[in-house]
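Researcher: I'd like a candidate sequence for this fold, 139 residues long. If you have to choose between options at a position, lean toward the conservative one.
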């Protein structure tokens, strides 16, 4: 078994690496990156969250983060900042694959979605390999 895979398994077994809570106020928007090629979380992937400004159609940067050992980003946006509108998450996939000494077809993945009811919780998973990706709206 590769050293990388052993480190990933270790991260899931040790309780110190488990998510015990997101923050005092959980984010209404959560993400989860899964490296389906290797069967592990997409840890240490840079991502940026944007919201479209209706009056200019420009994208406004809300937050820039890096996924944790479980491929998640707790506290991505606050309930107060999460208002109806069009959002985009940009995942820096080339940097992620390069950090493992591999190349990929998609240098980044952008997922754009509309929030109509900011009172709901939204989960946006990214299932990723070097040559494909998929996503869906979870809960």
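Model: Candidate sequence:
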């Amino acid at each position: 078994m590769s050293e990388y895979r052993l480190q990933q398994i270790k991260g899931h077994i040790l309780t110190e690496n488990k998510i015990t809570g997101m923050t005092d106020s959980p984010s209404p928007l959560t993400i989860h990156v899964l490296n389906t090629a290797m069967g592990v979380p997409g840890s240490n992937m840079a991502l940026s969250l944007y919201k479209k400004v209706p009056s200019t159609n420009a994208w406004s940067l809300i937050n820039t983060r890096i996924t944790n050992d479980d491929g998640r980003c707790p506290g991505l946006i606050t309930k107060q900042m999460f208002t109806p509108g069009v959002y985009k998450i940009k995942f820096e996939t080339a940097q992620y694959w390069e950090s493992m000494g591999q190349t990929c077809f998609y240098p980044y993945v952008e997922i754009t979605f509309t929030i109509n009811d900011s009172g709901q919780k939204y989960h946006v998973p990214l299932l990723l390999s070097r040559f494909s990706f998929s996503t869906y709206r979870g809960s």
